[in-house]
């Protein structure tokens, strides 16, 4: 029995008290000198090793054992309660060498005991048997940030629903105002027949002061009956996203046709501990470019707050996409003259268009304007727009895909023609531009201009197998960084965009385009493909989990580099330093890259792409 073994670490914390006792009773202690081989490639290991003290290097089993364990062939190190040898035990033999880098003490969990625990505990088995979806779910439920994550992802029904103030049709504006004051409410729901309409304090002021309505007027006549509603079972976090996207301060909670109450933005914000969430309010209240610039500077702190509390990466992306969209839209309103806004449409593309950009990376945006519009100053105004975004911390696009570049400022007809032209060319630049463009999403101005051009393009490529074959091929441009035996090939720095993110994003993009799915977000595209039965459910879940992991690991490294830099910028946003990953992250990364490798095989078969 060992008194020094820490049962609080995953996956051993998943065991029951009886199973932990079994483990403890069968643990051995092993001592290794510096340079001593613990497991040799080709051997049957005696069990799983958990480092108590010291450091162990894992090296490619195709090479001879080198006593100089500091050599470059060591690509993973284990220390501080890391475990190793689990895959080797389940595989029946080791394919790598494990050598003590320094004097090392390990706990040894014998193979027989490991197999007994795997047979008795399904979660423990899933964790050891490399099931990515199950393992990520286990980490989410049993990891260190469990309590904070549950707090951040509380349901709407968890105490934030306010009982609404309801008045019947025929109630006067004066009476409704008096009731709101007595009840200390800032809105009222007016019931007209079977419908509910909302009236805010601002609505009352506008009705009386601006429109000159008598105080005896029926309050139900000024109510808005297009209510933004949510379900009590939805996440409170989603309510925050919805309010940010819709630019509103309250949503109505409905269970089917039953009205339950109202959720106020102030209640949502007070529920979250980080006051960084007040950024949304500062953006909405910005009256000048400088006000907006100050509000946008809080986004990095918001990202750190969300990540530190264990919020799932997809929720973080959705909220940040909404925040970025509001900042860009608000700047558009401040820069573009009022009389021109109905005749132009600002679109964001690439990762911003997909709602998958977290840290502020390259700008990818364009402008579509009405055919025949006369606006001589448009290029000067668009240059000012891009320069202002740069001052907000949105770096310029190295490929110059910005509204400051006249190539990305087009009439509706010209934009449709460009999309069509790119689709008929199969060179790398055309495919790249089209891939960025088809992720386009309108964020300000007249969205109908964008939809006209997009729909014309979708009609032009429908049932065009040659186009989809060439378009999908870009997903296979970069090697998956795994060895023949399915382990990480790289030893130093990995480009996670080329190795993992891009193949998933572009492959899913191609399939979504083929089936005329209008969603631009990769996760939502996957869900739509599963719903249309164009992708198996478990396949879709694995792809979504892999993409989430890649984004999460990349974000962690981006934040580290930003904090270490003098100018607050990350020069290598897609670089992953494998030496900075812990054992859990390395295991999950390897599993996710295997999913990418299988997906690329599927794409090659589906679109008849030769080697």
Structure, explained:
Helix content is 46%, strand content 15%. By secondary structure, it is an alpha+beta fold. A hairpin with a 2-residue loop joins strand 10 and strand 11. The longest helix has 28 residues. The chain is globular. About 3% of the residues have low confidence.
Name the assembly state: single chain
Q: What is the strand content? A: 15-25%
Distance between the termini: 55 Å
Strand order of the largest sheet: 1-8-3-6
Structural class call reads alpha+beta
> What's the shape?
globular
Reported for the largest beta sheet, the result is:
4 strands, antiparallel
Outline the low-pLDDT stretches. 63-67, 143-152, 273-277
Radius of gyration: 28 Å
Overall pLDDT: 83
Instruction: Quickly count the helices.
Output: 24
Helix content: 40-55%
Number of strands: 20
């Amino acid at each position: 029995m060992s008194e020094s073994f820490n049962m609080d670490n995953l996956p051993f914390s998943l065991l029951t008290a009886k199973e932990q006792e079994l483990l403890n009773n069968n643990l051995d202690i092993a001592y290794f000198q510096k340079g001593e081989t613990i497991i040799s490639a080709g051997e049957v290991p005696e069990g799983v090793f958990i480092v108590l003290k010291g450091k162990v290097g894992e090296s490619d089993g195709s090479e001879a054992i080198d006593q100089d364990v500091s050599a470059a062939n060591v690509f993973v190190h284990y220390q501080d309660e890391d475990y190793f040898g689990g895959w080797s035990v389940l595989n029946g033999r080791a394919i790598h060498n494990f050598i003590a880098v320094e004097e090392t003490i390990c706990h040894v969990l014998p193979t027989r005991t490991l197999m007994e625990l795997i047979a008795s505990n399904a979660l423990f088995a899933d964790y050891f048997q490399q099931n990515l979806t199950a393992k990520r779910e286990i980490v989410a439920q049993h990891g260190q940030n469990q309590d904070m994550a549950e707090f951040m992802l509380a349901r709407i029904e968890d105490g934030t629903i306010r009982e609404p103030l309801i008045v019947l049709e025929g109630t006067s504006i004066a009476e409704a105002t008096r009731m709101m004051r007595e009840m200390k409410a800032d809105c009222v729901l007016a019931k007209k027949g079977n419908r509910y309409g909302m009236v805010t304090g601002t609505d009352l002021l506008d009705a009386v002061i601006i429109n000159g309505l008598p105080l005896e007027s029926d309050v139900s006549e000024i109510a808005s009956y297009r209510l933004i509603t949510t379900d009590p079972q939805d996440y409170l976090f989603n309510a925050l996203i919805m309010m940010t996207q819709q630019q509103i301060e309250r949503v109505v909670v409905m269970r089917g046709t039953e009205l339950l109450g109202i959720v106020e933005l102030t209640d949502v914000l007070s529920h979250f501990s980080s006051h960084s969430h007040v950024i949304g309010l500062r953006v909405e209240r910005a009256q000048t470019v400088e006000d907006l610039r100050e509000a946008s500077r809080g986004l990095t702190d918001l990202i750190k707050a969300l990540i530190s509390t264990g919020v799932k990466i997809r929720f973080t992306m959705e909220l940040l996409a909404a925040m970025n969209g509001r900042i860009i839209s608000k700047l558009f309103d401040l820069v573009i003259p009022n009389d021109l806004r109905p005749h132009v449409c600002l679109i964001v593309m690439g990762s911003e268009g997909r709602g998958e950009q977290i840290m502020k990376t390259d700008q990818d945006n364009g402008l579509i304007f009405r055919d025949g519009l006369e606006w001589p100053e448009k290029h000067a105004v668009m240059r000012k727009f891009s320069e202002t975004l740069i001052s907000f911390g949105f770096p310029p696009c190295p490929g110059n895909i910005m509204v400051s570049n006249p190539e990305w400022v087009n009439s509706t007809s010209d934009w449709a023609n460009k999309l069509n032209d790119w689709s008929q060319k199969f060179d790398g630049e055309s495919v790249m531009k089209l891939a960025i463009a088809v992720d386009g999403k309108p964020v300000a101005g007249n969205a109908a201009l964008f939809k006209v051009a997009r729909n014309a393009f979708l009609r032009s490529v429908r049932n065009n197998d040659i186009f989809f074959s060439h378009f999908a091929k870009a997903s296979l441009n970069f090697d998956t960084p795994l060895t023949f035996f399915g382990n990480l090939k790289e030893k130093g720095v990995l480009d996670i965009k080329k190795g993992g993110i891009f193949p998933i994003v572009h492959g899913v993009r191609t399939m979504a385009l083929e089936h005329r799915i209008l969603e631009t977000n990769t996760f939502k595209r996957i869900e739509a493909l599963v719903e249309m039965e164009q992708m198996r459910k478990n396949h879709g879940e694995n792809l979504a989990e892999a993409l989430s992991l890649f984004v999460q690991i990349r974000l962690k490294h981006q934040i580290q580099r930003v904090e270490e830099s003098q100018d607050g910028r990350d020069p290598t946003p897609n670089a992953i330093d494998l030496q900075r990953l812990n054992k859990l992250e390395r295991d999950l990364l390897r599993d996710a890259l295997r999913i990418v490798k299988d997906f690329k095989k599927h794409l090659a078969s589906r679109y008849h792409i030769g080697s």
